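Cross-posted from the bioinformatics board.
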Amino acid sequence: MQASTPGTRSSTVLTLLTSVTAVLLLVELYLIFGLAPLERQMGLVQKILYFHAPSAYAMYLCFGVSAIASAVYLANRKDQWDAWAVAGAEVGSVFCLIMLTTGPLWGRKAWGTYWTWDPRLTTTLLAGMVYFAYIVLRSFGSTGEVEKRFAAGLAIFGLLDLPIIHYSVQRWRGTHPTVITGKGGGMHPNMYPALIVGFVLFTLLAVVLMWQRARVERLRQRLQAVEVEAAERGLLEEA
Amino acid sequence: MLRRLRMGLLLACSCLPLWQLSAQAQDTQGTTAAEDRAQSFQAVTGGVREDVPGGPLTLGAYAVVWAALFGYVFRLTRLQRGVEANLSRLEQTVTSDRATIQPAARQGTGS
């Protein structure tokens, strides 16, 4: 029997996680539209919550991973940590984009306006801008050591904003709903399954997407190393 | 006169709590709508009447979620394919170059 290598084992785990995520996505849709009742005041728009709040949580997770991986990269300069930092920043930005577009659609119904300079909205926008700057820096600049280190510093700076986003609702009492926080009044019992499965689904989505992105980044790093060798051998013009 | 005053006081005393109650009720009605919405989600009872149509907003929000997720997965797949293709092409070139240089070097040291 052929022994499985770490690479094939991680691929199997990733495939398994992706399959579970796909199934959970279908379950989540059933729970949102089949089980959870319509909300008394918000109506259909309240169903945005089941993707909006979990995407906020997934954003925290990804940006957190990016910042921690950046700190480790600054400490030991191993490229695998840089790959995870890039993955966290990029996937986190996708979730941030989801949150910053679904939130205003909710706000149109709840507040009568798409955007208000509420503390939580403003600090979330700030976090999105910090990590967007990270992606731009990594995309347009050359991926030299200096750029990597500067980007790592930016990711760590972005991490400082995350607790501010989370506690801004409690500290500065903005207009953002506090339903699922400690100060909230809770929800109808049939609304909880959709929200809980939503959180699990988005956690898995974040892990799967970050993992896959980090693998691609590792491949890119290998490509760069081969490119350097090819250039040294004078093969790049031929290739 | 005294009787009229007594009647007036009695009327005022009975009306004041009523006025206060109605003011309180108005106040709670005015604030709880927004506070309710911000602090708890309750199921609808009876028919649904909406001032701002929720359908297009919800549809828009779900469209954004799907577009962002599938768009990113699509981009990631393309990126992976591109990097893999470049990597295998370059690795082949470098490997064949190594293979041609090493025998030549061996021949050079052997002669």
